[in-house]
């Protein structure tokens, strides 16, 4: 029988993201957002808005770099 505390489950560290176990998605989403923003604000922005893709403009046409 396992007698683990919720404090020490996967993801209860500042170095590991919160583990989604299939329950309470709204709470997990908030925890994941906080974790990703703690790494860097632009990480969460990339999750919500797609990563930034640099482009170059040649004669009025855009091309990916």
Could you give a short description of this structure?
The chain is of the alpha+beta class. The chain contains 2 helices and 2 strands.
3D architecture notes:
- The longest helix is centred in the middle third of the chain and has 15 residues, at 25-39.
- The model has no long low-confidence stretch (mean pLDDT 80).
- The protein is an alpha+beta fold and 65 residues long.
- It has a domain at 25-65.
- Strands 1-2 form a two-stranded antiparallel sheet.
- It is built from two helices and two strands.
- The protein starts with 24 loop residues before the first helix and ends with a strand.
- Strand 1 and strand 2 (61-64) form a beta hairpin.
Largest sheet: 2 strands, antiparallel
Overall form: elongated
Structural class: alpha+beta
- Give the spatial strand order of the biggest sheet: 1-2
Q: How many strands in all?
A: 2
Indicate the radius of gyration in whole angstroms: 19 Å
Order of helices and strands: HHEE
In terms of quaternary structure, the protein is single chain
């Amino acid at each position: 029988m396992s007698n683990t505390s919720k404090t020490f489950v996967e993801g209860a560290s500042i170095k590991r993201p919160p583990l989604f176990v299939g329950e309470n998605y709204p709470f997990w989403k908030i925890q994941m957002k906080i974790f990703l923003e703690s790494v860097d604000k632009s990480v969460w922005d990339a999750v919500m808005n797609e990563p930034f893709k640099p482009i170059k403009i040649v004669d009025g046409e855009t091309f990916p770099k």
